[in-house]
Every structure is written in C-alpha cells, then in structure tokens.
Amino acid sequence: MVANNSDRLGLTIDRGESNVLNVNAPNDIAIKVQGDALEEVDGFTYFVSILITVEGRM
Question: Where does the source fall among the domains of life (predicted)?
C-alpha cells in the first residue's frame, strides 16, 4: 500500500534509508515497502534534529 501510494504521487522510497519510529502508537503490523518490512527504531537524526522516544514519548 505504501509503495502503491508513493508511486501514484511520483515519490520513491529508499528501503535502505527508511525507518519506522512509533510514538504513542502501538503497531503490531510491520510497515512494508515492496514486500520488505521497514526497520523499527527508537530514535534517529533527521537533518539537524535528533528524535528519540523515551517511555513512548518524544
């Protein structure tokens, strides 16, 4: 579904550069792009901002 919607909009998702960060949102279903599940992480750096989750909050 993610890949189909992004293709329709002319966007490309790089599976090697994409991660999932859940914040206050339990998710038992893996987010997949072209059949591969994206890696779930506890934090990441986005440009110059560092995002981390602490006890389910940012």
Answer: Eukaryota
* DSSP label at residue 17: G
Q: Is the pTM of this model over 0.90?
A: no
Q: Cα–Cα distance between 24 and 49 in angstroms, integer?
A: 19
Q: Which amino acid is at 22?
A: N
SS3 annotation, 18-56 = CEECCCCCCCCCCCEECCEECEECCEEEECCEEEECECC
Task: Provide the Cα torsion 2, 26, 58, 55; round to 10°.
Answer: -150
